[in-house]
């Protein structure tokens, strides 16, 4: 007897990876009456609890709302109208709406975005299979590419009209594109982040990005009672070398200011080390295989752009599929890679700028430190320089969400 397959054997759009990119794409396609299957290698609990991003651009919030994932976001998301830059003992507030014609960001954890999208998908979307690990994607240059995957110890295939690799940086879909047909642009950084969660109210009601010769620190939050904090650490750092007391002392030292500031301490509930890199794969499409989100590009996290880029990639992709379905024209799909890459390279530059302006590289010269301080001073003293930062931070306007078919669920 043939083993029962956990998903249909064929679909229009096969999606590898159930992170934010894959889940949102499935939701958007479902609203347009296009069927899809999402294969996710991990289990539901793992995907829902993976600590990552926290800052959503206005365009991301609009997209999530438009596709029905706005209820908890509107209830628990924290609207932020400013960020603080701290350097050389000084603190400077960037007023986001004043500098951008009204744009702000929302602090709402990626874990919650993912929970909301999984809930919608399981309640009325297409199949979402956890524990389904893609092994390979074949036939990218044919009319029917195939995802080969393993589920509960058995191997299966999913034959598709299109395969979308939303399987993150370590995924397998990228390998479906012959190496001669893609180009990888990369940049490594000589530092990582130690990220911690702490059961303590945030010490500031806005995010604080702190430059210090001891290294960068970021003070963010998950809720009015939970802080999310990051410290620049050397590559290869073991979190075990950072007992709680050391973390608080370092956060204190790196956020020192001449103004009023007291860092509230509390129990640390999670610690992890995150390497950082910049990567872009070009093009994002090869035949009938397309790459979106972290599978296609990585940004260092200081610009808060990764999740937002993943959302704009798949929103534009869903629009292109809706256009193909409605008109038979593949024009938008053909232009999708180039359109996305323009936004990707803008975000790459901004993320690189935030990273290299705010971090202190090992062995950094005093000359380079003075350049960083001169740049931060320029942002603090020129509305034009501040507006450049604020426009990038809040994000360039995203494509509109494709209009749903008559009665979406
Ligand atoms: P992922 O979230 O990586 O999802 C890929 C999915 O594919 C995963 O669920 C994985 O299990 C699955 N998968 C992998 N391989 C396979 C396979 N072979 N078969 C099946 N499934 C597979 N971005 C922001 O916009 N704002 C921020 O504030 C921000 N802060 C960040 C802070 C940190 C500490 C980190 C690490 C990242 C941050 N980011 C931020 C980046 C953001 O988290 C990522 O860009 C985002 O997760 C990308 O989503 P994705 O769906 O493309 O990829
Ligand atoms: C968070 C992460 C970031 O990379 C960032 O720039 C701002 C906030 C966060 O996890 O809250």
Automatic annotation (TrEMBL):
Gene3D superfamilies given in the database record: D-Amino Acid Oxidase, subunit A, domain 2, FAD/NAD(P)-binding domain
Annotated FAD-binding domain residues: 11-350
Record's keyword terms, sorted: FAD, Flavoprotein, Monooxygenase, Oxidoreductase
Gene Ontology terms, MF aspect: FAD binding; oxidoreductase activity, acting on paired donors, with incorporation or reduction of molecular oxygen, NAD(P)H as one donor, and incorporation of one atom of oxygen
Family matches, as SUPFAM superfamilies: FAD-linked reductases, C-terminal domain, FAD/NAD(P)-binding domain
Oxidoreductase listed as a keyword: yes
Alphabetized NCBIfam families for the sequence: PRK08243.1 (NF006091)
Protein name: 4-hydroxybenzoate 3-monooxygenase
């Amino acid at each position: 007897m043939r083993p029962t397959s956990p998903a249909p054997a064929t679909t229009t759009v096969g999606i590898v990876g159930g992170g934010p990119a894959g889940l949102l794409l499935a939701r958007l396609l479902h609203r347009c009456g296009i069927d899809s299957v999402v294969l996710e290698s991990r289990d539901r609990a793992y995907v829902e609890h993976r600590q990552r991003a926290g800052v959503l651009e206005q365009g991301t919030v609009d997209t999530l709302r438009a596709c029905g994932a706005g209820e908890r976001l509107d209830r628990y998301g924290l609207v932020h109208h400013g960020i603080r830059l701290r350097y050389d003992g000084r603190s400077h507030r960037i007023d986001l709406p004043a500098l951008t014609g009204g744009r702000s960001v929302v602090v709402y954890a990626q874990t919650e975005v993912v929970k909301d999208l999984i809930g919608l998908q399981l309640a009325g979307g297409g199949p979402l299979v956890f524990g389904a690990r893609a092994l390979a994607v074949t036939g990218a240059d044919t009319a029917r590419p195939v995802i080969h995957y393993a589920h509960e110890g058995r191997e299966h295939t999913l034959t598709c009209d299109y395969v979308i690799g939303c399987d993150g940086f370590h995924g397998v879909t990228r390998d479906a594109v012959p190496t001669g047909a893609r180009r990888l642009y990369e940049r490594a950084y000589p530092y990582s982040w130690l990220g911690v969660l702490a059961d303590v109210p945030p010490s500031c009601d806005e995010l604080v990005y702190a430059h210090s010769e001891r290294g960068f620190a970021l003070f963010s939050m998950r809720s009015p009672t939970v802080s999310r904090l990051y410290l620049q650490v050397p590559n290869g750092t073991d979190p075990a070398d950072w007992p709680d007391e050391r973390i608080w002392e370092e956060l204190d030292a790196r956020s020192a200011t001449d103004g009023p500031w007291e860092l509230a301490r509390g129990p640390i509930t999670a610690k992890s080390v995150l390497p950082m890199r910049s990567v872009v794969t070009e093009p994002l499409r090869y035949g009938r295989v397309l790459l979106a989100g972290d599978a296609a590009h990585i940004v260092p996290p200081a610009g808060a752009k990764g999740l937002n880029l993943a959302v704009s990639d798949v929103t534009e992709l869903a629009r292109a599929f809706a256009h193909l379905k409605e008109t038979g024209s593949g024009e938008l799909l053909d232009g999708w890679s180039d359109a996305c890459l323009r936004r990707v390279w803008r975000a790459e530059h901004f993320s690189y700028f935030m990273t290299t302006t705010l971090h202190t590289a090992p062995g950094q010269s005093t000359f380079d430190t003075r350049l960083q301080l001169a740049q931060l001073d320029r942002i603090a003293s020129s509305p034009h320089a501040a507006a450049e930062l604020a426009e990038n931070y809040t994000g360039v306007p995203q494509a509109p969400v494709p209009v749903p078919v008559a009665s979406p669920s």
